[in-house]
Amino acid sequence: MLATSWEPIDDLTWELTLREGVTFHNGAPFNAEAVKFSIERPHHPDFETGDKIIDVPISHVDIIDDYTVHIVTHEPVPILPQRLSRNGAFILEPGHYSELSQQESSRMPVGTGPFKLVEWVRDQRIVMERNEDYWGPMPNFDRLVYRVIPEPATMLAEVLTGGVDIAPVSPSNAEDVRAAEGVDLIVGDSLVRAVLIVNVNLHEAFNDPRVLQAMQWAIDTQALIDAFALGEAEQAVTMVNPPNHNPNLEPYGYDPDKARELLAEAGYPDGFTVELDVLHPDAFDWAEAAAFYLTEVGINISQVNMLSRPVWLPRNVEGTLNLHAHHWSAGENTPETDMWATHPDRPSNSTNWFNQEWYDLYAELVRTVDQDRRTEINHRMQEILHAEGGPWLTQFRVPLFRAISDRVAHYYPHPSFLVEDFAQIRLVE
Amino acid sequence: MSTTPALNEKSASDGPADTYRDSIRRVLRSILRSGTATIACIILLTIAFAAIFGPALIPHPVNALNLGARFVPPSWSEGGTITYLLGTDQQGRDAFSRLVVGARMTLIVALCAVLVGGSIGFLMGLIAGYVGGRTDAVIMRLVDLQLAFPSLFIGLVAMGLLGAGVVQLILVIAITQWADYARIVRGEVLKVRATPYVDGARALGLSHFRILRLYITPNVMSSLVIVATFSLAVAIYYESALSFFGLGVPPSIPTWGNMLSQARDLMLRAPWLAVFPGVAITLTVLSFNLLGDWLRDYLDVKLRN
């Protein structure tokens, strides 16, 4: 990490102490100037494309000395360090990035990391070379090649024949990797939530919490985990990942009779018919199985659609998706970022769900710095989500299956699925 | 006007003595004489039977999953069971049942596409060939334009824009095929239009519509049927290809292309899931081609007798 310590000075100011003796890939020194440049950059009116960090209400950055900065926000941001840990908050070399246009610089990144970019061929490969001036422990190999292999079967074949050293594998193929010679299977924890999301506007039935609860009881989530995550995941209660989850809540179990009862109580003894959209290809298998379970209790899924990103993204923003299955990452690991997917003001919210108490609590949570009060609010919000039954159902954190060659060690997939720490990798001598 | 029926019979069939039953008998004899056509017919009849009655006869409901019995191999291999004749897929669903039910949607899509594409192509070819002149030039440039693009490419782009769905798929396959029909029909029409009996009909003052209906269409029909047989094979191939790319029939509806597409990522884990739909597609396409070959020979007057 480029900051060695961080603490709030007052409600609106965080003080960061920076690592000394770090240089950028082009030889320029890393200092407070670079931090000010990088944090303020996306808030500049000329900035072309926004990135995730842009929606943090940052006012400005004060340089105290070469290795101390104060980040000042418009309103309290208790989770600022977590927000700065996510992709989009990288520290860039000011000279390089102010010289080039955003288009050009995005193809020629200059940072402080353990690898420098050598070559980028779109949709084929990214070649990186070890940064000899890296401040941290040095990897013991010279080049890191990132290859794009679109066919999972081809990728698996490359893994088994030694063509690649590290590759993601699907749960269906994990057993083959485990059994193969010269290759190991790693199962990494993740913050990526497999989730069935209800768009409550899709059908009037979804406005009744009993219907959402019925859907929870209808699906054998444990069976889905055993089959499609090889049992390597736990059923989650709400969308909030540990350690911020409410430990007092129990997940809904599998009880199709109870589901039918609740549906009848809500006035749908004969059920109703909806469609299911799958937004992430890896979610298709479990979503299709979940559709079967829902159909069994009377919520008839007439069709399971596999949507590509350009198709679902606008419908996600409009809130016009059907019932949808997704793999949703939550890299910051804070309660407010984990839960913002159901907040009415977020464009990424596809649920159209609303609960006044929950809404007010969220507004309080994002401004509260006191840890105890934060926990209290957060737990209460999860109780509401759990009691309502939705709008997020059937959740588990997707384990990250990776095939890794015996000649490579110390690799562990990053739980956020958004970044990777390649500096830790070592070749076995 | 009294000469019209005689002219019609002369051009449409072989003689007044020919009865319906006789012609059926002759077709059957011709099929049986050709070994390949016999095999093709047996295969196609089996598949048609599966498509029509299969859903009522299959041992397991197509969408009934059994997560405890995933990736069961075919019954004759080690670990297989007779309950699942061709094994099970990643959801524990019976592969045999899905293959049988998949025949229906695969054939529906192919037949509808050929019907729609054939009708458009037939009309366009008829108009182009009969009217001629500028109309002909415009239609034929459209045909050239259509044929200049690789049809799978058109299919991929169109499905990407329209979104996946059965109706869209039928339309897209029809669009990729109409040009073939139009060109062949136009050629036949040009040939027929120049014959003395059409001149005669025109001299008798028959309307264009009647000339087209009574003299031209029957003579174009045999070529059209042959092209349609080959097109059926191509349509099945397109259905499978587009579904394989995830742009065809929604993946929850079993078709051979969808089954193949889902099996692709599991090639090493469960090769049988890819083999059987692949074999089914191959056999069907091959059979339609063989039948088309036979039909071409059968309808060719020069080769008859």
Could you give a quick summary of the protein structure above?
The complex is a heterodimer of chains A (429) and B (305). Chain A is an alpha+beta fold.
Task: Provide a descriptive summary of the structure in words.
The complex is a heterodimer of chains A (429) and B (305). By secondary structure, chain A is of the alpha+beta class. Chain A folds into 3 domains: 3-107, Dipeptide-binding Protein, domain 1 (Alpha-Beta Complex); 115-190 and 400-427, Periplasmic binding protein-like II (D-Maltodextrin-Binding Protein, domain 2, 3-Layer(aba) Sandwich), CATH 3.40.190; 193-397, Dipeptide-binding Protein, Domain 3 (Dipeptide-binding Protein, domain 3, Roll). Chain A has 14 helices and 18 strands. Chain A has helices spanning 32-40, 80-84, 94-99, 102-107, 152-160, 171-179, 209-218, 221-228, 256-265, 284-297, 309-318, 335-339, 356-365, 371-388, and strands spanning 3-10, 13-18, 58-65, 68-73, 115-121, 125-130, 143-147, 166-168, 183-188, 193-197, 235-236, 272-278, 299-306, 323-328, 392-397, 400-405, 408-409, 426-427. In chain A, strands 11-15-10-14-12-13 form a 6-stranded mixed sheet. In chain A, strands 1-2-4-3 form a 4-stranded antiparallel sheet, covered by helices on one side. In chain A, helix 7 packs antiparallel against helix 9 (256-265), helix 8 (221-228) packs antiparallel against helix 10 (284-297) and helix 13 runs antiparallel to helix 14 (371-388). The two termini of chain A are 28 Å apart. Chain B has one domain: MetI-like (MetI-like fold, Orthogonal Bundle), CATH 1.10.3720. Mean pLDDT of chain B is 85; it is low at 1-13. Chain B is an all-alpha fold. Chain B has 11 helices and no strands. In chain B, helix 3 (35-57) crosses helix 11 (272-299), helix 6 packs across helix 7 (166-193) and helix 7 (166-193) runs antiparallel to helix 9. Chain B is elongated.
